[in-house]
């Protein structure tokens, strides 16, 4: 399944400063659909190059990370249970800033 993953608000620094990633992620064995619950660990393993604790806490994103799936807040589509489809765009934006 081809997805576009975008990182902003400083999260791109965890991915070697690359903001946009075009990836191919397959559902887990025995599953017919890919969900955010399965995508997040894939991102942590394959894209995050340093400090994964800044991206994830437990099996979800850290508080303060806004997640949009096709420009829709994932809180409206089921969060970890959000089903992903081919060519979806998933955006991760950190809303936490120092100062």
UniProtKB/TrEMBL annotation:
UniProt GO BP: protein urmylation; tRNA thio-modification; tRNA wobble uridine modification
SUPFAM superfamilies in the cross-refs: MoaD/ThiS
Key words of the record: Cytoplasm, Isopeptide bond, tRNA processing, Ubl conjugation pathway
InterPro entries given in the database record: Beta-grasp_dom_sf, Mopterin_synth/thiamin_S_b, Urm1
Pfam families the record matches: Urm1 (PF09138)
Cross-link Glycyl lysine isopeptide (Gly-Lys) (interchain with K-? in acceptor proteins) mapped to chain: 99
PTMs per UniProt: C-terminal thiocarboxylation occurs in 2 steps, it is first acyl-adenylated (-COAMP) via the hesA/moeB/thiF part of the MOCS3/UBA4 homolog, then thiocarboxylated (-COSH) via the rhodanese domain of the MOCS3/UBA4 homolog.
Residue numbers of 1-thioglycine PTMs: 99
Cytoplasm as UniProt keyword: yes
The keyword tRNA processing appears for this protein: yes
Cellular compartments annotated: Cytoplasm
GO cellular-component term (any): cytosol
Origin: domain of life: Eukaryota
Main localization category: cytoplasm
UniProt pathway annotation: tRNA modification; 5-methoxycarbonylmethyl-2-thiouridine-tRNA biosynthesis
Record family assignment: Belongs to the URM1 family.
Described function: Acts as a sulfur carrier required for 2-thiolation of mcm(5)S(2)U at tRNA wobble positions of cytosolic tRNA(Lys), tRNA(Glu) and tRNA(Gln). Serves as sulfur donor in tRNA 2-thiolation reaction by being thiocarboxylated (-COSH) at its C-terminus by MOCS3. The sulfur is then transferred to tRNA to form 2-thiolation of mcm(5)S(2)U. Also acts as a ubiquitin-like protein (UBL) that is covalently conjugated via an isopeptide bond to lysine residues of target proteins.
Name of the protein described by the UniProt record: Ubiquitin-related modifier 1 homolog
Species in which this protein is naturally found: Coffea canephora
Lineage: Eukaryota, Viridiplantae, Streptophyta, Embryophyta, Tracheophyta
